[in-house]
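TL;DR need structure tokens for one chain.
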Amino acid sequence: MSRCPLARRPPAFFVVLVASCIVTMISMGLRSSMGVSLDPVTESLGIGTSTFGLLVAIHGLMWGPGQALAGAVLRLFIEEKPVPDRTGTSIVAAWEA
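>> reply
TL;DR here they are.
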């Protein structure tokens, strides 16, 4: 008789799986909530939804390079290494250490 391969996994596997699902649901909910404020913001600014969407997209694209530049400037002025807060930044910090 073949059993389900997941039935043999330790309970810690399921705890990590459930915890990661919860974190993903929370983060996706925060990212997806921009649509709720789209109409009030565009009406108060007097711009169209496509213009506002373009502004949000440009912000998202500039966020990544902005973090790298801010980290580089920070390293010029302090002697301690900054604490990385993103996966890519953590990989770079671990590589340079």
